[in-house]
TrEMBL record, chain A:
Residues 84-273 form the RecA family profile domain. GO terms for cellular component: Rad51B-Rad51C-Rad51D-XRCC2 complex; Rad51C-XRCC3 complex; replication fork. Belongs to the RecA family. RAD51 subfamily. This is DNA repair protein RAD51 homolog 3. It is found in: Nucleus. Involved in the homologous recombination repair (HRR) pathway of double-stranded DNA breaks arising during DNA replication or induced by DNA-damaging agents. InterPro entries: DNA_recomb/repair_RecA-like, HR_Repair_Mediator, P-loop_NTPase, Rad51_C, RecA_ATP-bd. Keywords: ATP-binding, DNA damage, DNA recombination, DNA repair, DNA-binding, Nucleotide-binding, Nucleus. One of its GO terms (molecular function) is ATP binding. GO terms for biological process: meiotic DNA recombinase assembly; reciprocal meiotic recombination. Transmembrane segments: none annotated. The keyword DNA damage applies.
TrEMBL record, chain B:
It comes from the Eukaryota. Residues 77-254 form the RecA family profile domain. One of its GO terms (biological process) is double-strand break repair via homologous recombination. Signal peptide: none annotated. This is DNA repair (Rad51) family protein. It holds the Pfam family HHH_XRCC3_RpoA.
């Protein structure tokens, strides 16, 4: 790495170059006061420059024993961690099965589909299911719902929470003492209070809220799920310069991935569809372009298969591509073969 | 929020000056650039850029609410405009929701404007009669608004009210009709409306029809332009709806469904779907494309087949997919069956207009 790649402001960089400091080694044994005098800058600025130099050199040098890089973990440790990780159930057993248990934490999952297929329904279902207490097999965490289109309806969230609680109590009819206390927590109002709702009206606000999430999540440490519904809407409307849009989206997705790893939560992005000209005809594909499709860890496409709604895993590093049918019922997202009396199809 | 001035955000003055010197005045300007670009532009180091961006983001970010608070707010403000069609109101959990975009789409002559006229009347009625007791803004792009017909609907549906002296006039005075002739005029009226909606107690906004605006602009012919001319108006309409918590009803036209329209995902491969070919003659699809379809919150499809007309709830976060047969009478639209017919699968999105006997019915 040379001087031109250091994260310092351009005016200081040009001063360094004009004074003849072209490589890092030339700065390795200079004191801050000398540098300040040479460049005619303030002492603090010279200290900053030298700190930037030392940061880059230490990360490059391999004088750390046993070749183990600070901050890395071994694959075995990661495996043990992953096995202990709980997943967020989607409500449909078949879909959970092909996902390897449900939506994974520490990963960014993108869900896309045509209008009316159930993306918002899935989003609200996940926001409810993440709150299922640990004793009942859930994560016991809260959810952040970032709504860019105004599709979140509180009444529907109420119905879905009600349906979820009903099914839990049906599945775990035990009346033992340890369950009694968490039974009290299973109230619809508690579930609704555990969803933090942001309504975003422009792409600037979308960028702002994702930047602000780091502070928010530090304050509210029990959030285990962040949903953005939908990540596309404002970016399709107001952006004229597509190259800039790609750069901004790239920054957003990096930040989301960092948040998911740092706070050990799942990030779910809902996306719209558009048509793309490939192989001589127009095909349906998820919006925001090809570069965006690389940004997410997992990708699920919801589509119509005849008269059935189906979820197809298009991209995942850990599970194979597979399809699972699901239903949207009065109680939320459910599987085709629910144990209960035929789920009344909404 | 996007146009919030950086100078008013409480950043340290030296930092504010640097931003304004480079003409980055609003949050939108600052947040649209990646951090490294900002660093180069402003000539300050990266840590300072990061903390500035974090402060700007915090100031620009809207406040959050919990789901519970949202629900309580909804319960307090009623939340729905009842259409007085019991089956439809049940399916929509109360009626046309406040703060969301409801779309009515269907072939011409099927009854969309009739529905809108009745809604306008219902919103203007005093609360004791089930109305919202407010003003209505009716944006009429195709010159279809007929006040005579509206009074006729009023007299048919609420005979006891409309015979009262002067009430018909009072109702009619609450309905404000505007006729923009281009998208820019439409956008201008929307801008002005944003402030006056609350001041003037407007309780309903109807745009009949929005597709006509796009058609005028597309007169040069090429509908293949990927960027819809309605982009700015769309998000603005939605934000007006939410900001003032009024229902917004928009009507849309249909166009014929060519075989190119049956798009498939790449992973599905190429399938010759012969079953679709015989449907394509009578098959229609909503105008304005898939981007618009994503943007509306509720879509009600008006269609005709097997000798009847139907209202289908095609896209709604809170309703099952049902269809209601209806007729248009002197008192407006009446449902023939309040229970609704359940429609399975992707049929709910199809729009049919079989036969020309709509006119003779």
């Amino acid at each position: 790495m040379e001087i031109s790649n250091l994260p310092i402001s351009p005016s200081i960089r040009s001063k360094l170059l004009s004074k003849g400091y072209t490589s890092l080694s030339s700065l390795s044994s200079i004191s801050p006061s000398f540098l300040a005098q040479e460049l005619s800058v303030k002492l603090e600025e010279a200290v900053e420059v030298l700190r930037a130099v030392s940061d880059t050199t230490t990360s490059k040098s391999a004088h750390i024993p046993y070749g183990i890089i600070p901050g890395a973990v071994t694959a075995w440790d990661m495996l043990s961690e992953e096995q202990m990780q709980r997943h967020i159930s989607t409500g449909c057993e078949d879909l959970d099965a092909i996902l390897g248990g449900g939506i994974h934490c520490k990963e960014v999952t993108e869900v896309g589909g045509v209008p009316g297929i159930g993306k918002t329904q899935l989003g609200i279902q996940l926001a409810v299911n993440v709150q299922i207490p640990v004793e009942y097999g859930g994560l016991g965490g809260k959810a952040v719902y970032i709504d860019t289109e105004g599709s979140f309806m509180a009444e529907r969230a109420y119905q879905i929470a009600e349906g979820c609680i009903y099914d839990i109590l049906d599945k775990f009819p035990s009346n033992s003492r340890e369950f009694l206390s968490c039974k009290e927590r299973l109230q619809v109002n508690n579930f609704l209070a555990g969803i933090f709702y942001f309504r975003i009206c422009s792409y600037t606000e979308q960028i702002a809220v994702i930047n602000y999430l780091e502070n928010f999540l530090t304050e509210h440490g029990d959030v285990k799920l962040v949903i953005i519904d939908s990540v596309t809407f404002h970016f399709r409307q107001d952006f004229d310069d597509l190259a800039q849009r790609t750069r901004v989206l790239g920054g957003l997705s990096l930040r989301l991935m960092k948040l998911s790893k740092m706070f050990n939560l799942a990030v779910v992005l809902l996306n719209q569809v558009t048509t793309k000209f490939t192989d001589g005809s127009f095909q349906l594909t998820l919006a925001l372009g090809d570069s965006w499709s690389h940004s997410c860890t997992n990708r699920i496409i919801l589509h119509w298969n005849g008269n059935e709604r189906c979820a197809y895993i298009e991209k995942s590093p850990s599970v194979p591509s597979a399809s699972a049918p699901y239903l949207v019922t009065g109680k939320g997202i459910r599987g085709i073969n629910s144990n209960f009396k035929r789920a009344r199809i909404m | 929020m996007a146009n919030k001035l950086i100078s008013q955000m409480g950043l340290p003055p030296s930092l504010s000056h640097v931003f304004s010197a480079r003409n980055i005045l609003t949050a939108k300007d600052a947040l649209s650039l990646p951090e490294t670009d900002l660093m180069t532009l402003l000539d300050i180091d990266i840590a300072l850029v990061r903390s500035a961006v974090a402060s700007i983001s915090e100031a620009t970010c809207p406040p959050f609410q919990t789901g519970l608070a949202l629900l309580e707010e909804k319960m307090k403000s009623g939340g729905h405009l009842s259409t007085l069609l019991p089956g439809l109101d049940n399916a929509l959990c109360g009626g046309i929701p406040f703060g969301a975009l409801t779309e009515l789409v269907g072939p011409s002559g099927i009854g969309k404007t009739q529905f809108c006229l009745k809604l306008a009347l219902l919103a203007a009625l005093p609360e004791c009669y089930g109305g919202l007791n407010g003003r209505v803004i009716y944006i009429d792009t195709e010159s279809k608004f007929s006040s005579r017909r509206m009074i006729e609907i009023g007299e048919g549906s609420f005979p006891q009210i409309f015979r009262l002296q002067g009430l018909a006039q009072k109702m009619a005075e609450r309905i404000i009709v505007t006729r923009p002739t281009s998208i820019s005029e439409f956008n201008d009226s929307l801008q002005q409306m944003k402030l006056t909606l609350l001041q003037n107690e407007v309780k309903l906004l109807i745009v009949d029809s929005i597709a006509a605006l796009v058609c005028w602009d597309n007169e040069k012919g090429t509908i293949s332009s990927r960027q819809s001319p309605l982009r700015g108006s769309l998000s603005f309409l939605k934000s007006i709806a939410e900001f003032s918590q009024v229902p917004v009803v928009v009507t849309n036209q249909v166009r014929s469904h060519s075989s190119d329209d049956t798009f498939h995902y790449i992973f599905k491969g190429h399938r010759k779907d012969t079953s679709n070919s015989e449907r394509s003659e009578s098959h229609l699809t909503a105008a304005l494309g898939i981007q618009w379809a994503h943007a509306v919150t509720i879509r009600l499809i008006f269609e005709a087949h097997s000798g009847h007309r139907f209202i289908k709830v095609a896209k709604s976060p809170i309703s099952p997919p049902v269809a209601f047969p209806f007729v248009v009478e002197s008192s407006g639209i009446t449902l023939l069956n309040q229970e609704g017919i359940s429609v399975a699968g992707s049929e709910i999105n199809a729009i049919r207009c079989k036969g020309c006997n709509i006119l003779t019915q």
